[in-house]
Amino acid sequence: MHNLVIADTSCLIVLEQIGRLSLLKKLYDEIHITSEIKDEYGSELPGWITVAELIDKQRQKILELNLDKGEASAIALGLENEGSLLLIDEKKGRNLALSLGLKITGTLGILIKAKNNSLISSLREEFDKLKNVGFWVSDKLLTQILDKYENE
Fold it and tell me: What is the pLDDT of residues 44-58, one digit of tens each?
């Protein structure tokens, strides 16, 4: 288990759109976000999502030179909490987080973990829901994931 699980806005929004936000609670107990992510999310948050404040706002400002406020604040919070897991989907943010030594996963990783924990029955059904809400991912990657995990 990771010390702290931090979600970026996109993961929260897309999981809510497909009716699977509660998977985060089942997989991680508690999710932490920043006030910037809360603002971007815009909807009422479940009680198991905690808003954490950054200690070093300057680090966030530097990260904002390359990323939006939510991503920058999520990465900054991850850097302040060693051993944390960052839930992030955007390629640019993922690459930067990895280059800074953060552990990451995204919406697809969350769904794979949910499947492995028998919380969902079909990755294919969840991937179809993702496509229906405009979540972009390559067909090649989806096929690779389905080949590896769907028939286990």
Answer: 999 999 999 999 999
Residue 144 lies in a domain: no
pLDDT exceeds cutoff 80 at 29: yes
State how far the Cα of 15 lies from the Cα of 24, in Å rounded to an integer: 9
The residue segments making up the domain with residue 45 are 5-108
Average pLDDT of the chain, as a whole number:
94
Number of domains in the chain: 1
Provide the CATH number for the domain around residue 40: 3.40.50.1010
Rounded to whole angstroms, the Cα distance separating 82 from 141 reads 30
Amino acid present at 92: K
Of 73 and 29, the one with more pLDDT:
73
Reduce the DSSP state of residue 88 to 3 states and report it.
Answer: coil
Query: Cα angle at 128 between 132 and 42, to 5 degrees?
Result: 45
What whole-number distance in Å separates Cα of residue 111 and Cα of residue 92? 21
